[in-house]
């Protein structure tokens, strides 16, 4: 299977810019005009990811049962990171809430 190393780098850069676009910290570098148009990085990231996924799986024919195995393997590849980030952001928002003084311990 051929790997597009240049596209991996571009996807990584776009992913970092997407994160910076979604961070709303006052007076940070994420407020520069360059990052205010971060929605274009989201679109570019999805276009690149779609191309790579089509190139990898587009011509693949799945035998009976293989598609189910494929979906399960993809889910268990992505789901742990999703849960980890969800817990991180819940903790981050709780810390922000307590730091603001709105809620007392």
Q: What's the end-to-end separation, in Å?
A: 55 Å
> Mean of the pLDDT scores?
81
Describe the biggest sheet? none
> How much strand content do the residues show?
under 5%
Q: What share of residues is helical?
A: over 70%
* Sequence of secondary-structure elements: HHHH
- By DSSP, the count of extended strands is 0
Instruction: Note the total helix count.
Output: 4
Organism: Chitinophaga caseinilytica
Domain Acyltransferase: 5-98
Keywords: Acyltransferase, Membrane, Transferase, Transmembrane, Transmembrane helix
GO molecular function: acyltransferase activity
How would you describe this protein?
- It is built from 4 helices and no strands.
- By secondary structure, it is an all-alpha fold.
- The protein has 2 domains: 1-60; 62-105.
- α1 (5-22) packs antiparallel against α3 (39-57).
- The longest helix is centred in the last third of the chain and has 35 residues, at 66-100.
- The model has no long low-confidence stretch (mean pLDDT 81).
- Keywords: Acyltransferase, Membrane, Transferase, Transmembrane, Transmembrane helix.
- Pfam families: Acyl_transf_3.
- One of its GO terms (molecular function) is acyltransferase activity.
- Residues 5-98 form the Acyltransferase domain.
């Amino acid at each position: 299977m051929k790997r597009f190393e240049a596209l991996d780098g571009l996807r990584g850069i776009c992913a970092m810019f997407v994160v910076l676009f979604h961070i709303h910290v006052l007076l940070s570098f994420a407020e520069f005009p360059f990052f205010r148009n971060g929605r274009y990085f989201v679109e570019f990231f999805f276009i690149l990811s779609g191309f790579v996924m089509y190139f990898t799986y587009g011509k693949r024919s799945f035998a009976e049962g293989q598609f189910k195995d494929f979906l399960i393997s993809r889910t268990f590849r992505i789901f742990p990171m999703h849960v980890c980030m969800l817990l991180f952001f819940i903790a981050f928002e709780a810390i922000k809430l307590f730091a603001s003084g709105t809620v007392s311990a």
